[in-house]
Amino acid sequence: MNTEPVLQIKGLTVSFRIRDQYYPAVDQLDLTINKNEVLAIVGESGCGKSALALSLTRLHDSKNTRIEGELLFKGQDLNKLSPGQMNKIRGSEIGMIFQDPLTALNPLMTIGRQIEENLDYHTSLSKKEKTKLIYELLEHVNIVNPQRVYEQYPHELSGGMRQRVMIAIAIACRPSLIIADEPTTALDVTIQSQILDLLKQLQSETEAGIVLITHDLGVVAEMADRVVVMYAGEVVEIASVYELFNNPLHPYTRSLLASMPAANAEQDQLHVIQGRVPSLQNIPRGTCRFSERIPWIPQTAHAEQPTLNEVGTEHWVRCTCYQHFHFEDEGKEHVLDGIAGAK
Ligand SMILES: Nc1ncnc2c1ncn2[C@@H]1O[C@H](COP(=O)(O)OP(=O)(O)OP(=O)(O)O)[C@@H](O)[C@H]1O
């Protein structure tokens, strides 16, 4: 695996203002995204995945959001750029794909015109060159009739076709980083896998780094090289996709995997994770944030001020509770013994 970094995130904290006080939704996050890798960010709703995506693209509402830390991309800190400088990078060197293309596309503009507008902003191609490139891009994302789609409006296309158009726009300027926030969540299953295949194909052609935000572990298994598991604004585990599925350590990761249908084909019932992700104001800070959802694990199992520790090659886990974790209905004899891969 090529480990040339595309984006280095250092000490990123993203806070939202609620009644005149700022609360971190992403807390002190350090992460590197490499060229030619798909880095998946997973977690339940409310864990801070979208807050992270918004901060990387700087598409947040700056009146009520505070972003601290460094976002080092090609030798510059995105967090220090002016809105104008960021506009130049966004849509060219950083591509974006969101869950709902219908809200991202302009309903009053034909598809061809929208892609052209993006090219106008980021390139100095002639009209003829742009039209040729747009047809090529549409073909590249497997749209069979690019001339027709060029003339169509977003509402005339299916959800899958609209997502292909979004992907065409995202890759138009050959970005080195693509942020894909739940890119297939709104699509039905067969279309989902076509779009994932397309993303995978484009990634191997362009060698871009992709940050793939999803709550769907099936998507992670299919797409990711590395996985970051987030809980209540913090990273709780980072590992290669193989390691994560074969040797998950953090109680939250293990709970997420146990609640995944495919992993439990032979079980009668899926695991249900007790409780819910706390709201921003109620996140327990300075202690293990997941502890309240595994109350049968004694408090002494958790570290004070839990940190992310390297427990194996490129495998990081927060807190010490993973060494003592068992599911509530399991006897303690099932506690991870020896902790494969642990130092
Ligand atoms: N603009 C905002 N103002 C206040 N709180 C916010 C804002 N946006 C998000 N939050 C809160 O920040 C936390 C993280 O939200 P975020 O949307 O990043 O989570 P997520 O993991 O992406 O969830 P989902 O999958 O539902 O989008 C949640 O508690 C959410 O309620």
From TrEMBL:
- Its chief place of residence is membrane
Q: Which SUPFAM superfamilies match?
A: P-loop containing nucleoside triphosphate hydrolases
Molecular functions per Gene Ontology? ATP binding
User: What region holds the ABC transporter domain?
Assistant: 7-257
* Cellular localization per UniProt: Cell membrane
PROSITE patterns for the chain = ABC_TRANSPORTER_1, ABC_TRANSPORTER_2
Q: Which Pfam families does the annotation name?
A: ABC_tran, oligo_HPY
What membrane topology does the UniProt entry give? Peripheral membrane protein
Q: Which domain of life is it from?
A: Bacteria
Nucleus keyword on record: no
InterPro entries reported in the protein's UniProt record:
AAA+_ATPase, ABC_Ni/Peptide_Import, ABC_transporter-like_ATP-bd, ABC_transporter-like_CS, Oligopep_ABC_C, P-loop_NTPase
Q: Which UniProt keywords apply?
A: ATP-binding, Cell membrane, Membrane, Nucleotide-binding, Transport
* Matches recorded under NCBIfam families: oligo_HPY
The family note in this entry says: Belongs to the ABC transporter superfamily.
Its protein name is Oligopeptide/dipeptide ABC transporter ATP-binding protein
Species of provenance: Paenibacillus hunanensis
